[in-house]
Amino acid sequence: MEHFKLNKKAQVHMTETIAVMFIFFILLSLGIIFYAKYSQGQARIAEYKQFGQKAMDMTLQAVFLPELICTNAEAETGSNCIDLQKLQYLNSVKGLSVEEYFSLFSYSYIWVEQLSPNEIEYTIYNNTKPEYHEVIPSFFVVTLKDYLGTGSGLSYRYGVLHVEVYR
Amino acid sequence: MPLRPFPSKKAQVEVQFNWIYVLIAGAVILAFFGSLVIFIKGQAEDRRAVETLNALNSIFVGAGISEKTKNFIETPEVELVFACQDGISSFNLKQGEFPPKNPAAPIFSPAEIKSKQLAAWSLPYKFPFKIMDILMLSSAKDAGGIKYYIVGESPLKEELKKNLEVQTPLSGEFWPGFDVSFLSDVSEAVDENNYAVRFIFLAGPSFSLPVWISSLPSEKVTGLSIANKEISFLSLKNNQLTANSVIPLPSIAEENDPLIYAAIFADSEEAYLCQMQKVFNKMSKIILIYESKTTALKDFYQKKSAINPLDNNYQICGNLLIKITEGLAVMKSNANSCVNKLSGSACQTLLENALAVKEDNTNLMQQSCAQLY
Predict the structure, then answer these.
(1) Nearest to B247 by CA among B275, B220, B221
(2) pLDDT at position A141
């Protein structure tokens, strides 16, 4: 009888221990799940921020690309101004070579939309991603310097530089 | 008072077992949380390192696209390493294994930068039209990084003083400048406990060094000799700086020559030539674009000349552009030959080509023709 009583007490003790451990592991796994979810969210935010930063870097590089920008002899180069003759040449060869410029522009589509006097599109770089998760578009209003315009030769047009970065 | 009976042997074992059980469980829980903390700390450090690299890359992009910009960059306590191979440059953190960043602009800097404050400066390289912006990067003044001793007298000294030392602009941000000291003689150089030193000799050919240099590891002492438009990288052998081959600079800049400044900040001759490979690759692409622009302008003037044969100006412009077209074709082939080394007859001819194109562009301007650049 005494032996049976002791065994029952031990069984209760064991059940208590198991219950405590069970609750402890439940709480622990809940904590791990919450942390994992939080980390995932943070990683996604960091990834998005990084992609946004990359898109901004690419846009800046496109706006100030020496292959396109206007020059004025020895003077400092103008900002937000594109040389139309250089642009026409790039458009005629279907834009910058993807092999040579991939390190600079990766997966993106960069083009200039001339708004006046007539609407024309000029491709600068075209390497879109067929299956993309996200695209960040940005645009800048630019002046197009035309050396072969009317009258004395030099004239200006207006356009928009579009940059779409794919991920 | 009755004596308390001794606990039974079984109870003794049970008490001991409980203690051991608690100890093991405690140790396991402690180890688990300890490893969790280490894991989270490692992750946070990695995230911070990646963020630092991304931020620096963006700063370099920004600095590399705006002409004549001086930036002051404050970084976390990290060591940066810069490398260049086959015309592809990269930078990374010394500690940890992170994917390196490959900046588009050529960065002329020491191989290692150990400083919390960096100074960056960009200059456009024009040959004669703009090729790209060149970025110079090193530790800022008084940041305990690399020290530059500029030795000797030369007309270049005043320009270097104006460009490399601290500047307080009327507007905009304060720029601390690089850690430079201008000396008449090398014996004036004082040990300031910098981890690396670089001697820039403006009037060679003697490259003697102060005695305290022997306390620094040989790879931390480098030098450069500048004479007119020629440079020689100096390396330390037996406590003496010896000159490597003379490199003529393909530059037509009359002042603020970016290639001279690039050589001052480049770690070695190999690093300099590697970064210059990037510049020359870009040059080939830019020449191609200017070639097509010249053809477009030439065709325009030739058509105008055919319609208005009495207007002599169209013919003059057309002829000048024909000359430039021929010059650019030679320039393109010389630029391709000059990619891997800056010396040689092709590079010398390239310099003459660039000067000729510059003169022709001035003539276009004087004749009221459309300019090439």
Answers:
(1) B275
(2) 94
**B68 contacts chain A (CB < 8 A):** yes
pLDDT tens digits for range B246-279: 999 999 998 899 999 999 999 999 999 999 999 9
pTM above 0.90, yes or no: no
**Residues in CB range of A46: below 8 A, 6 or more apart:** B47, B50, B51
Chain B residues inside the 8 Å CB shell of A64 = 65-66
B15-59 pLDDT, tens digit per residue, is 777 888 889 989 998 998 899 899 989 888 888 888 889 888 988
Asked if the C-beta of B102 comes within 8 angstroms of chain A's C-beta atoms, the answer is yes
CA neighbor of A109 nearest in space, from A122, A92, A93? A122
DSSP string over B190-225: -----SEEEEEESS-S-----GGGGGS-GGGEEEEE
The range of the structural domain enclosing residue A146 comes to 50-166
What is residue B331's three-state secondary structure? helix
Considering its fold, how many domains does chain A have in total? 1
Q: For the sheet containing B88-93, what is the strand order?
A: B88-93, B79-85, B112-114
CA–CA separation, B173 vs B343, rounded Å? 40
Segments of chain B with pLDDT less than 70? 1-7, 10-11, 167-173
Domain assignment present for residue A126? The answer is yes
Asked if B192 and B339 sit in the same domain, the reply is no
Would the ipTM clear 0.90, i.e. be above it?
Answer: no
The token duo for B335 is 């630029």
Considering CB atoms only, which of B66, B289, B370 is closest to A86?
Answer: B289
Residues B178 and B258 in one domain: yes
Q: Is residue B162 part of a domain?
A: yes
* Structural domain range at position B337: 278-366
For B289, name the nearest residue in chain A, comparing CA atoms only. A86
CB pairs under 8 A between A and B: 79
| B322, burial (CB in 10 Å: exposed 0-12, middle 13-18, buried 19+) | middle
Q: Which residues of A touch B297 (CB under 8 A)?
A: 85, 147-148
Residue A39 included in any domain: no
B178 touches chain A (CB under 8 A): no
